[in-house]
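Appendix B: complex inputs.
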Amino acid sequence: MTMQGERPILEARGLTRRFGGLIAVDNFSFSVSEGAIHGLIGPNGAGKTTTFNVISGFYAPSAGRVFFRGLDISGRKTSALAAMGLVRTFQGSTLFQEFSVLDNIRVGRHLGARAGFLSRLLGTDRQSEREADERARETLAFFGLEELADEPVSNLPHGHQRMLGMAVALAAEPKVLLLDEPFTGMNPEETRCMMALVRRIREGGVTVMLVEHDMQAVMNLCDTITVMNFGALLVEGAPEAVRNDPAVIEAYLGSAAADGAGHVA
Amino acid sequence: MSRKSLDRKISRRKFLGTTAASGTALAAMGSGLSRVAFADSHTIKIGFLAPLTGPVSAWGKPGLDGCLIWADWVNAKGGVNIGGQSYNIEFVGYDNEYDAAKARTGATKLIKEDGVKFIMMLGGDTWPGVQKIAEREGMLFSTLLPSDLSPDTKTLLAPCEVHPIYNVTGVEWMAENKPDLKTAVICAQDDALGKPSVATYLAAFEAAGIEMQDEPLFFDPATTDFAPVMTKLLAGNPDILCLDTCYADYVHPLCEQAFQQGYKGQIISCTADFYQKIIEKTSAEFMEGFIFQFPDFDDPALNSEGVNFVNPNEFYAEYAKRYGASEWSAVSWEYASIMDLWADAAGKAGSAEPAAVLEAMKAGGTGKHAFGTADWWGTELFGIDNALVGNWPVVAIEGGKATIKEFRSIPAWWDKHKDLMIKHMTALGQMWNQRG
Amino acid sequence: MPETAGAMPAAGTGGAIRQLAWRLRLVFLFAALAALPYLLSYSQQEIAVLLVINVLLVSSYRLLTLTGEWSLGHVVIMGVGAYASALLAKQLGVPVPLSMLLGGGAAAAVAAILSFPLFRMKGFYFLIGSFAAGEIIRLIWKRFTDPFGGPKGLKRIDPFPDIETGFLSIDFYEPVNYYFLALVVVSASLFILYRIERSRIGLTFHAIHWQDRLAESVGVDTFRYRTLAFVIASFFAGIAGALYAHYVGAVNPTRFSVDQMVYVLVWAVVGGTATFHGPILGVVVLTVVNEIVLRALGLDTVRPLIYGAILILSVLYLPNGLESLGTRLRARLQHWRGGPDATGSEPA
Amino acid sequence: MDLLWQTAVNATYAASYMALIAVGLVMIFGVMGVINFAHGELYMVGAYCVVFLYAQENFPFLLAVAAGLVFVGIVGIVMERTMFRPLRDNPLGGLIASIGFLLILQTLAVLGFGRRMGHVPPATQDKAEIFGAVLTYQRLFVILAAILLLAALWAFLRRSKFGRALRACAQDAEAASLQGISMNQTARIAMFIGAALAGVAGALTAPLVSPTPYIGHSIIVTAFIIIIVGGVGSLEGAVIAAVLYAFVHTFVTTFFDGVIANIVGLALMFAVLVVRPTGLFGARERA
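Resulting structure:
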């Protein structure tokens, strides 16, 4: 089951990010093929989230480069990356809690609903806004949320909020979607449902990269998996290969032993 | 006291009338409301438009308090006789918070709704908001800050304190009586009062052949610690330390610092409010001979011939009794002295109408200033001769008590040295045609 | 926030009726505003003029706060408009209506320049940064006597030109006439501000306020939008300043000090910033209380004390502002009627 | 008299009382998250305590200063209890309330002491000479008291349980409450200390300035600049910035003039903001 192209759509070379004296990401490289579902895993504190933040433009890399469709995008602003088609989600229910469900998606359509300042004032943006609304409702329908369009987000159950987070990102029409821990805190039923959604998103032609703790989900879902440890690349390959790699086992066992319970990434 | 509550009653009634105007009252009110209604045809109302709250209120509120004494005294004697009819005087205050827009609102209220015949102001920042109204309504105004005067301000008078011109008298007296003082330094707050005053002192020093050791030192009005200012001033060991027209809350710490940093020379200043307290902070010896321009009103010299202020000693006693001596300041008597001038002119004119009073006041080119008959003057400095200038007292501290040394003529100085004054005023951008 | 963040007016018959009711209400409001000066005394008309100008000031301030940033420099920006318009009219002879517009433009331009250092900061740092920037602008006015007039500022600023045609003659010295002039300008400005807020731009401002990182991630250039809010708000603050300058005829640096800014903050917060009308309610109520009620009671010395107490009590007992009184009242009414949808949900 | 030394002495004095005020302001901001606009008025109230007790009622100066410290501290507790506690989740509301409070304090001072200045005779007129520079005991006393109080505060924050709680709350109120630290208790103590520092600064300097009911305005603007330079979250930053500002301001005043000193002060503040928005010593981003 692959629609995988050979050309990498997203690539990092020698990525490094320091915070003061601390090196969170250390000379880390990976590449994501177009049309893939690519997993990024690693023990707690391995630097996954920092990597995500660097790729998505929240932090500039201290060294190294990020390429998107062959273009050097290192250090570009998040909003500029989104305009190019690289969109990320956030952990948990990071949403415009004060808005209605539909308004969340409408913000997600920010790039798709362009209009000049004057036309906003005069209301001549109505055409493009109507289109944007239609597309927003389509996106909601894709996630089965269309009934809830006018609900305030804060009334939604947790699982729906997680889906809405993905819907907001999808509304921006990404070419690559970066999912930050999409399954964390979900029950098996919800996880299954979410995995199906991710597959359908990929079928829509969107490349997906995700950071996740839930091994089971990652192994089942991803075409390729990159494992990092101590900020550096450990292994990259197909799920089976990664699962059986002694270095990976060692890293997870070691960290689990050292870690105890209740550590937060 | 009773006056106050009466005021309140009237204004409250008016307020209820105007704001509760619902549909039924609408027709009756209309614009007719702004028409003046006299509560009592034998009362003349005088407007008092000055800051009564906030940081500048020290220049307003004590003046209104002084005016209330003035009114009580005049009314107790049957009021002011105008055209054969006696009128009681009533003051209507409006707090302009030293804001131009609020002053404008206050001026229209006093004119259109209270029907005042004359409005006294502090002036300064608030005057430009009122200027247009003065022109349009032909209302007579007075200010304590003559820098408000310009050729267009035909109905604005500076009839009492022609700040800062009178400061020349102190310098002149000092130069005559202490001729061995040769060098001076000066500091001032950087504002509308400090700058023209600096120009005046510079002119007066130059006229007296006293040399400035350094450029004038300007400090921000928000300054609270004056040690660095004084350190800089004293660095060259001057003979004379000039405190310009610093406010009382600057003069005190400045003197304290001069004393502590070992200064022993002459000090000259425009004001020395609460000088007894400065003596407490320094020493009687240090303050001996301190020259300034504002006499105590219990000074017997104020009873001398030529001084027009009525019963100055009693006025001070009454003020201290009513409001406490610590509230007393120059403005306490200044606004009241303007009322003397006004009452005199209204009597002469036989009318309280602003135009008639103005004409009577300026008739003959002289007027009865608090400190003696004086000339209407100012064309060269202000572009209009609406400032009343004559003698001004030179005061020195002797034996811990402010003593009037002499009433000295400002016009006499001006006739000799006006070029110097115009030169220094121009250099600091203080001539009427240099102001926005 | 649902009311303001909301989408376009809903279509359908319910929407049409609501729209009609809304329009009727507007007509009534304007009729009342037109009748108002004739119910007031002359000096109260003066207060009404300043009040209308302050309505624009505080409403423009609210637009800036939509992105979540609170400025302490808004009154200084108003001053930029006032000074610019006054100087253009005084020194270059620009006709006053045009100079007012340019005054707004100057304020917007200054804001655009300031946004580069200021929007490197967020939240509290933006607040103090805007204070610092404002103080520096005020210092420039004080130091450069030519052309700004130094601490005394500018006076004898050209008034708004009288309209003198054969049958119509309007003298803008009369507060009632200036009131209508200001009312027209301010209504038009408020309409624009309202449209902006109700458009996608307003939605984006809100989005930045609540989750700027999420907004960024879907392509919102938050710096650009924060700047946009700042520039628009500053433009209208500048217009308010120009209206003020040509009415009062004088401006000085003290008039635009942080003390005055505090009043704008107070109006906005006491009125409630969750809705468009909250800050307007705040400035109207507080002005009437301070300038008319307390003065009429003959209270001079203690007026600031009572005003201060009112501020404290209102933030303590109406934390969502005076406007929440209306919402509460409506909810209460709905409750009595047994209406099902009491949608007066409190803003977060 | 050596100008340089005299200027340094002047600057040291200015730094001392400014540090007291700025540290108080930072303390209140750190724990409460509120900018206390009434801080200048707390200074004013402290000064009037000395006007009343020492100048009018002839109590000993030290006693009056101590009373000022305690009284203003109590005023702080009252502010905390009546305003800042109910408004804890509403920092803007807290700001507005403090503005209302400052209007009340100003008016009360006018009613109680008149709108003109208060008079405080010096407690002593003796002075010391250091390298030809004059340092009056009155000023020396302010310097020593400031050092003593700030050192005591530092020790208190390091050593005591409350100190740890205070620092924890300033770092992260939620985490602190999870650790069983009482937010109310901590806030009360922080308000007492913060207000008392402003009050004692006013009380100590009352004989050296001329307190008026409106002096708070001059104080708060300077304090604002200092905490911006030092970083709003940092007590040490406030002290260092106070020293820095006082020296820069004093030296520029002496060698140029007071208005230029203000320009330099503002420029310093703006430069710090542009280069390092969190202030020289503030590390944390607080949105």
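The beta strands of chain A are 8-19, 22-33, 37-41, 63-68, 71-72, 86-88, 176-180, 207-211, 224-229, 232-237.
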